[in-house]
Amino acid sequence: MRTKLLLFFLLLGISFAGFGQAYHSSNSFFFLPQVPVQQFQGRPYRYQVSVKYVPTDTTAHLSLRAMQVGKNDYDFKHTDPLTERPRPNEWHTYTIEGQIGTGVQKLWFYSIIDGNGTFLFDNLTLHVQTSAQAWQAVPIKNGDFEHSATPLAGYETGRKDLPAGLAVALAPGQGPDQSQALRLTFSGGTLVKTAPRYGHNTAAGHTCQLPGVKLYYETYGQGNPLLLLHGNGESINSFRRQIDAFAAHFRVIAVDTRAQGQSIDTLTSPLSYNLFATDMKMLLDSLHLPSAYVVGWSDGGNTGLLMAQHYPTSVRKLVTMGANLFPTTEAVEAKMLRQSEQGRQTLLKQGKTAQARLLTLVLTEPHLTYADLATIQAPTLVLAGEKDIIKRAHTQAIAAHLPHGQAIILPGVTHYAPQENPALFNETVLNFLLDRPLTTPGLAK
Prior knowledge:
Elements: H1 2-12, E1 23-25, E2 29-31, E3 34-36, E4 44-55, E5 61-69, E6 76-81, E7 92-99, E8 106-114, E9 117-129, E10 135-138, E11 166-171, E12 181-186, E13 191-193, E14 205-210, E15 213-220, E16 225-229, H2 243-247, E17 251-256, E18 264-265, H3 273-286, E19 292-297, H4 299-310, E20 315-321, H5 334-349, H6 353-364, E21 380-385, H7 392-401, E22 405-410, H8 417-420, H9 422-433, E23 443-444
Parallel strand pairs: 16-17, 16-19, 19-20, 20-21, 21-22
Antiparallel strand pairs: 1-13, 2-8, 3-8, 4-7, 4-9, 5-6, 5-8, 9-10, 9-12, 11-12, 14-15, 15-17, 15-18, 22-23
Helix pairs in contact: 3-4, 5-6
């Protein structure tokens, strides 16, 4: 949960303008209540919170917004921002309104603080419209800060420890109606350069016009080229925890695959991994690169295998994470296939054909066989998580049928290993690419 909350916080992209570059405060902090609302899907809601903040310098900044979340904590449905700018030095009740969308299971109400000053909060309330004239109160645990000795009881903060310089306390008599309020006092915060948001970094971004698609990619670092290929429905940003580490050794070329991220696809025909592999070969050709190291995650791993099969001189070494040869229960957990088909049918009913096209891809491809792997000469590291949706036997079979393949099952992680344990993933990949000993437990041929 903590990682997912931090992920969304980073995606908010709060920064200070006017410095010639994006900055954030070193003591940035947020808290939020999670409120179950699955029974209110389709109904209007109104969230209110009373806030007073007294800045001590120009770094102080407050942001309020609501996040609608689906079945899991990565399923971000919609964001409802505060439409007015918070005013300093006085109590004011702020309102966020929206409609609870289909599939929304809970609402997260973010209070996001940057900089130095005193921030007081009180009277967090949520009401949902149940009829033309009636609004129902939905409880927010500890929303009035009157019934717990622990100031942030019932709230998520996305972190184990408070940032340096933050004091958290209950403030009796300091609320807007002389009630008890939550008081957050920030000191010692400084402006820190904000890292670029990968996938939207104009300084590193480029495009390449290919048949039926304008591919978007970003480049980082120097050295031998390393191509990063993300998974289905994802983007360059999926590798946000890898790019810096890899760019210390390679010229990283992180690509938004056709019809995903910022790569604009003008075709309507079915997508295929062969098409993706051809796109990558043409991209390398456009950059006058005869070959590259390739790291592919999920769909990107499938594409990497096809690149190594059809364009053998283009792939120096290959790393796949959670790849599969065919879309059956021999390779993929049945639950994942069922959920993908259910999602595809829902998207088709909603007229979201572009998204449905991506799910059709994972349900119908790839069409590789174990015999096909015998033609791949590139040294290949085949990775999967201990709790991956790709079955362990299938991962190990892929490696066993590759002439120069080896498998590692990464302990304690799922299909999302690059995000769940980036240190382990990055070290394993770099050891392989840089010809260092592979020390990760679970090595299997």
